[in-house]
Amino acid sequence: MAREYKPQIVTANDLFEGDAVYYTAAGGWSREHGEAIVAWSKDAADKLLQAANEQQARIVGPYLAEVAMGDDNRPSPVHFREAFRTRGPSNYLHGKQELASSIQTDA
After folding, report:
1. What pTM was estimated for this model as a whole?
2. What is the rounded average pLDDT of the residues 64-79?
3. Residue-level pLDDT at 10
4. Distance between CA 31 and CA 29 in Å, rounded?
5. Distance (Å, whole) CA 18 – CA 106
6. 26 within 8 A of 18, measured Cβ to Cβ
7. How far apart, in whole angstroms, are the C-alpha atoms of residue 1 and residue 44?
8. Burial (CB count <10 Å: 0-12, 13-18, 19+), residue 96
């Protein structure tokens, strides 16, 4: 019996800045997980991954990641690793982590 297909997005790392990026419907990359285009079938996922692999001058290490659709109809990470990647590098507070930290302490 074939496994049920789970929706997926293509993610990679920006070659120049190292941030996690997500493949969008416009054929570009966004640092916002929720802006990623969702593949609803294995064939669609394979095509998105192939298109991402053709952009090796901009990104590195593209792969498929499972997502769940949120109430806002945007993809959200399913696995811990992907949720962790949305918060940016983990070695010290900077970028997205610094912003999130300052918002929490200001409240």
Report:
1. 0.78
2. 90
3. 97
4. 7
5. 28
6. no
7. 21
8. middle
